[in-house]
Amino acid sequence: MIGFITKRLLSTIPTLFGVLVIVFVMIRVAPGDPALAILGDNASQEALDAFRDRMGLNDSMLVQFGRFLSDLAQGSLGTSMVSGKPVVTSVMEVLPYTLELALGAIFFGIIIGLPLGIISALWRNGWLDYFLRVVSLLGLSFPAFLTAILLILWLSIEWRIFPVISSPTGGPIDRIYNLILPALSLGVIMVAYIMRTARSAMLDVLGEDYIRTARAKGAPGRRLILHHALRNALIPIVTVVGLYFGLLIGNAVLTEIIFNRPGLGKLIVLSLNQRDYTTLQGLMVISAFLIVIVNLLTDICYALVDPRVKLK
Amino acid sequence: MTTPLMTVEDLSISFKIEDRWCRAVNGISFDILPNETLCIVGESGCGKSITAMSLMKLLPDTAQLGGKITFDGQDILSMKEKELEGIRGSRIAMIFQEPMTSLNPVLTVGEQIAEPLVLHKGMTWSDARREARNLLDLVRIPDAEQRLGQYPHELSGGMRQRVMIAIGLACRPEILIADEPTTALDVTIQAQVLALLDDIRKEQGLSIVMITHDLGVVANVADRVAVMYAGDLVETAPVADLFTAPSHPYTQALLKTVPRADEAFELLPIEGQVPPIQLMPEGCRFAPRCLEAHDACEVAPELSPGPHAVRCWAREERV
Ligand SMILES: Nc1ncnc2c1ncn2[C@@H]1O[C@H](COP(=O)(O)OP(=O)(O)OP(=O)(O)O)[C@@H](O)[C@H]1O
Ligand SMILES: [Mg+2]
């Protein structure tokens, strides 16, 4: 297991290096002068020069890239051009909020999507199945921000169950309470994806020979579905969850802004407004790492649900 | 006469194809006697598997069943699903043609063998697992203890079929239905598995219904044979009678398709093939392929009475 994880992490180094190069170059060739953007149009030439000097913007690209890499090797993503705070610190401060939001969305996706998908498969082509399929199609085609706004209008403003602004500041209970509505609105897509995958996976599995074997053994219907079939149907479902995690992080940014919730989303908007290039660069690098780790976790989940997959 | 374990009377199986009910099995009757091996033979598509599955009412809901299957005084076909669950795997067990796909890939061999014991005998999982070990010994799988923790993909085809047999035998059923249990295996393994089944039948005194299209298998293991053609049972006889005095033209043709050591080599395939169920001919279903067909064959003949029964107008001249 440890060996597998190390090997997988090592094998992502070329990919990550590619990401680093792209991020680095993108930021530098993007129009706009950070010194001008940060100090303003009225800054004196001396001030601008001093700023460029301090930030190392006068060095050649190669030198800058070397510095970027050696910083990274020491676990540093540099300091914010605006606040002077280490980028790693400001990202790590808000990352847990985004992660809990994404995990909350997956949680809702599973506890709602999985049972509905199974029901849909068991009553395939019945009216319930058609209804659920239409609903899931709506869930997929509805933009996340619209879902969020509708949920706020309905659950926060009309019924006053949840706060309009998600400000998780108190203890764990308060934190979960503040998480529910954003996670639910972000989870709608996940519900739809998981439901559709669960439906088709269950339909495939229920037609397999080993289900007939289980029936021939006298296994009752519930055991047939929840034990024999579901265990096998989980394999494609794990894939979908892993695959859409990246999409989820992307959508989380929007959700966070709508709910005015701390997280990567707010940090990105702030950094963009302030032209804080180092922070943006750090954000992208950390997101890339995140995706790598999620892929790794997906592979480990595979091995857990499918004994034919060996972690080597 | 021995009382049969199971009696199948006028069994018919229909499927709806393009809004029309088509009879895939056309009213067949036979008995299963205690401690015998009954072989059901016939070409591909003649309804062997669906007949076998209907013996424990395992067909999908889309199949329409008719007739009566009496087991222990009760009609299997009119039983509720709950009652059937109590019989399946415990008193009647079934093993299937495809050992590669018939075992659940994500469950251990041990769990799959132990499951019927837990379901039917009320055993705890650990007791059932211990019994599963014994069953692996019974089907002659070496290193039983280690095998219990393995998954199907770690076993060869022959091993998997032995595991299927172990699952089938777990609750000591009275009837074991084996649907082409050796077709997917290579020849030496085939012989081993057949010998194993025969030994176990003798030891445990169960009845085996063996589905096959291989007359070599029939000659090896059968006590009685039922020959099926296109959903009809065309001939049934004790195995020796069938091989020495085949009476139905289809059986005769079928026998000519196997090479025999004691005859000049003359291999004759049967012309044509089993029609799909939506295109079954009226009258005798074999007539279009029968070299001896005549006018009378436009009306379907009845199965003659007696231990060597034939369903053919020409039988009087023959038997
Ligand atoms: N679920 C189904 N729906 C419609 N037709 C079916 C269904 N199951 C079986 N049939 C038809 O019933 C006929 C008999 O099928 P069956 O599987 O019993 O054949 P078989 O004798 O076992 O052949 P094989 O040697 O190929 O296994 C075939 O024509 C098949 O197409
Ligand atoms: Mg078959």
Describe the structure.
- The complex is a heterodimer of chains A (312) and B (319).
- Chain A is an all-alpha fold and 312 residues long.
- Chain A contains 13 helices and no strands.
- The longest helix of chain A is centred in the C-terminal third of the chain and has 38 residues, at 221-258.
- Chain A is globular and about 85 Å long.
- In chain B, α6 runs parallel beside α7.
- Chain B has two domains: 6-91 and 173-318, Rossmann fold, CATH 3.40.50; 102-172.
- Chain B has 319 residues and is an alpha/beta fold.
- In chain B, the strands form two sheets. A seven-stranded mixed β-sheet of chain B has the order 6-7-8-3-9-10-11, sandwiched between helices.
- Chain B has eleven helices and eleven strands.
- The chains are: A mainly alpha (312), B alpha/beta (319).
- Adenosine-5'-triphosphate is lined by residues 15, 24, 42, 44-50, 60, 62, 213, 276-277 of chain B.
- Chain A: It comes from Litoreibacter meonggei.
- Chain A: It is a multi-pass membrane protein.
What is the CATH architecture annotation of the largest domain in chain B?
3-Layer(aba) Sandwich
Query: Measured on Cα atoms, how large is the radius of gyration of chain B?
Result: 20 Å
In the CATH hierarchy, what is the architecture of the largest domain in chain A at level 2? Orthogonal Bundle
Multimeric status of the protein:
heterodimer
Strand content of chain B: 15-25%
Query: What value does the Rg of chain A take, in angstroms?
Result: 24 Å
Q: Which small-molecule ligands are present, each listed once?
A: adenosine-5'-triphosphate, magnesium ion
CATH superfamily of the largest domain in chain B: P-loop containing nucleotide triphosphate hydrolases
Distance between the termini of chain B: 22 Å
What is the fold-level CATH name, i.e. the topology of the largest domain in chain B?
Rossmann fold
What is the CATH level 1 assignment of the largest domain in chain B?
Alpha Beta
Count of DSSP-assigned helices of chain A: 13
Count of DSSP strands of chain B: 11
| Largest β sheet strand count, sense and barrel closure of chain B | 7 strands, mixed
Major sheet description of chain A: none
Shape of chain B: globular
Number of strands of chain A: 0
Strand content of chain A: under 5%
The structure class of chain B reads alpha/beta
Q: Give the tally of structural domains of chain B.
A: 2
